[in-house]
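Below is how a single chain appears once it has passed through the pipeline. First comes the sequence as given, then the structure the pipeline wrote out for it. We keep one example in the README because the format questions we get most often are answered faster by looking than by reading.
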Amino acid sequence: MPRLDEYQGKQLLSAFGIQVPRGGLARTKEEAGEVARQIGGPTVVKAQVGTTGRMKLGGIQFADSPDEVERITADILQKEVKGLRVDKVLVEQRLGIDKEFYASVIVNDSYLVKGPVVMLSTAGGTGIEETALRSPEKLRSINVDILEGIVVDQVSQAFSDMGVEAHILPALAQAVERLYGVFREYGAHSAEINPLVLTQDGSIYAVDCRIVIDEGSINGHPDLGIDYPRDLGRDPTALERVAWEVEKEDFRGTGYFVQMALDCRHGERCIGFMGLGGGGAMLSADALIQKGLKLADYADTSGNPPASKVYRITKIILSQPNIDGYAVMGPNIANQEQWHTAHGLVRALREDLPTRPGFPVVIFLAGNKEAESLEIVRDGLRDMPARIEIYGRDYITRVDYIAERMRKMVDDYIQERETQHE
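Resulting structure:
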């Protein structure tokens, strides 16, 4: 699920009436210095990357002058924070903070709740996880009726029960109510303000925020500018960006693709992988790994995608450099029409395999139109110069056998290629 950068989250909070520090985005040290001059006074410079723990890694630093802001910005823009390259910073006014709180709205999908939950704490800032474990008296949760919405009196009472002074309660409750508004409007999976602070002049501000948007909400909010998957923990590869465009433009079924090994070398038994269905696909991936194969990627084309989507994802998988095989694994009785998958696979493989003599391919399909689908695959790939094995529902409980066969074909392919090069 895509996480918004801090500056994007604060734009949403501000639009809903929650105060945020004055500031601006900068991509160069000169732009950062200009923002600091407009703010006047002490500032903070924050790396805009989708991860936590920026302070400890030097991604958040304080400055007392525009010149210092420029120096700090130049330093931060050269950093990687948890594998994410920093290409922009947020320069903000530094507030005089009196107290720190925590507020969030999350989706709790347990069968007992299945709805939004508001989490509140009087111990905001870093270490909120430890607070929940060590000081539960400083934490409250409120289950929200999705039809009724948030009840402000409940928020006020929760803060009051944690010892918050009465004169602060209305402003805190209002901020939480507005945070819930952001959560609802943008279809968020979670919306968090940490810390939500009381300043020395008695105002309430959102100093930092973390908003994660549900993937199903992205297309309804093009204003967010989400143009790549942000849940990878690193910058996306070129192929992942291409796959994202496939998924973004075609809502029929799933076309998920993520690269797991960016350093495959020939002879390393690195293979392309596409699964059909969550649990069965992961079981297959594990079986292949247990046989000593390395997965270059994890892809999923379930949910009844059209042949065109399967074709495009397959082409992306086969575009990965130095792979020594390709496994399509669907060890479940899928209710999707498998012949669409079969047609997409045949077209992609017929275009690709002639340039890879002896290349190992395993195709495992089961479910609706299974017999017709297997026939499409057999006929379509009959004359291809590759090692191809095709399996159906009889092997649903024999995934280990298929993984073993894949390993054997990959070993033969590598040995044959090495012999030819001697």
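Residues 238-421 form a domain with the Rossmann fold fold (CATH 3.40.50.261).

See the next section for the split statistics.
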